[in-house]
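User: Please check token order:
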Amino acid sequence: MSTRARWGSAVGLAMAAMALFPMALRPPRLTLLNAALRVDYGWAVVAAAVSSAVLLAAAGFAAPPVWVRRMGVLAALLAAGFGASRLRYRVETRPDVVYARALTGSTSVPWAEVTRVDRGPELLVVWGRGDAQVRLDTSGFAGDQRAALERALARRIVESTLPSAAARP
């Protein structure tokens, strides 16, 4: 394959990756269940991020100079990490705990142990006893999504502080 054709392939693949990437930046979806709320990324968002990574890797391998190949592979690795973080991300308000899962691990705080909730413009932090905390990045949320999440958190916290029906006379 000629150098000109390799450059054309590399540029075309990189442009295709860049065309897909905005779909990977969509906000997470919010699913209201009977007894819980779940926030995660849909399969289309994850597929767009992973496809961008694959296209960037192919563009890197198609480029003629070695330094461009290395840059393409580095960009592909970053995009793959981003896709993996989208795939792994999940926040749930379960009946007994608030649970968050990310690429680096998962945390949960039982509702009965919630001491406070800090609200920032792009972050909600649910604090438990000691240093236990669930950090919820809400920077990509739509306004109604964040409001629904805050209402679900408030409802669960209030419910956990009320005496149970079994304990009432």
